[in-house]
Design goal:
The chain has 284 residues and is of the alpha/beta class. The chain has helices at residues 2-19, 81-93, 112-126, 145-155, 184-191, 197-202, 230-241, 267-281, and strands spanning 21-23, 51-55, 66-70, 97-102, 138-143, 169-172, 216-221, 246-251. The protein is globular, with a radius of gyration of 19 Å.
Length: 284
């Protein structure tokens, strides 16, 4: 009886966990990234299966907002804990639904991450009622290379059918450009070592901003040597040239990749600034 009881608990836990994740694609994704995962010990969020992990806030504090979170990792992996789970839990505390996107790595197949992101936005928007979300208040958040993906989704989107346009963007120390000041590893993994001039232009997101780009907040460190601040500065400048509401916060130090670690020296003012910005765009 004891063994049966333990087994029931274990199976119940598995069921609860499975209900918190949904696969992005019912069948095969549009583009194959040609990655074959043979190692059964690979982490579940780097198994080349694109999914959304769902974190919903307590109904008593839900604001109706939602954020799709894109962890960074240089387009070669996902910094899932401090740029994913920690973020989702903080958003829930703010009354915001969070969906961590386990996007596939491009492996030089440039459209793969964006296809996954578009599909994630569609799924969240189409199921807004199920998750008690306002379908016109779905944002995207990205860190580093995930910030490039989030800014790509914010500048390359379809409005026919279910819109894939985010309603707002949160960018942490993002890779923005594929030209001068790019992060070379992210560019190589996305576009290959010898990208065309056209691809460099298309995926340099500071060049793709127009009047339909969503309101954006950018947060980064002045001493970031991995993804230099010029990335965010170019994006912010282009946002302002197109009349897009934007906020830019550059902290004196911290380097790159601090995510939502509470040990980051400027974590408290950072989350206070972000919380205030989210309330302002939600009309609170």
């Amino acid at each position: 009886m004891k063994t049966f009881f333990v087994t029931v608990i274990f199976l119940t836990c598995l069921c609860v966990e499975s209900q918190n994740k949904i696969k992005l694609w019912e069948h095969n994704p549009p583009t194959d990234n040609k990655i074959v995962v043979n190692d059964k010990n690979v982490s579940e969020y780097q198994d080349n299966i694109p999914e959304l992990e769902i974190f919903l806030p307590d109904k008593s504090k839900a604001t109706g907002m939602a954020v799709i979170v894109c962890p960074g990792g240089g387009y070669s992996g996902l910094a899932y804990e401090h740029e994913g789970i920690m973020v989702a839990k903080w958003l829930n505390n703010e009354g915001i639904a969070a969906f961590i996107l386990e996007y596939r790595m491009p492996n030089k197949h440039k459209t793969v991450p964006l296809e996954d992101t578009w599909q994630a936005i569609r799924l969240v928007r189409e199921n807004a009622a199920k998750y008690s979300i306002n379908p016109s208040s779905i944002g995207i958040c990205g860190f580093s290379a995930g910030g490039h993906l989030a800014s790509t989704a914010s500048t390359h989107f379809a409005t026919s059918g279910t819109s894939t346009r985010p309603d707002f963007s949160i960018l942490f120390y993002p890779v923005i450009t594929m030209g001068t000041f790019t992060h070379q590893g992210s560019r190589d993994n996305l576009l290959g070592e010898n990208p065309t001039i056209e691809d460099i232009y298309i995926y340099s997101n500071e060049k793709q901003i127009n009047t339909n780009t969503p309101p954006t907040i950018l947060l980064l460190s002045d001493d970031d040597k991995v993804v230099v601040p010029e990335n965010s500065l170019k994006y912010y400048e282009a946002l302002k040239m197109n009349g897009i509401p934007a906020a830019l916060y550059i902290f004196p130090k911290g380097g790159h990749g601090w995510g939502f670690h509470e040990t980051y020296e400027y974590h408290k003012p950072m989350v206070e600034l972000l919380s205030g910005w989210l309330k302002s765009i939600n009309g609170q």
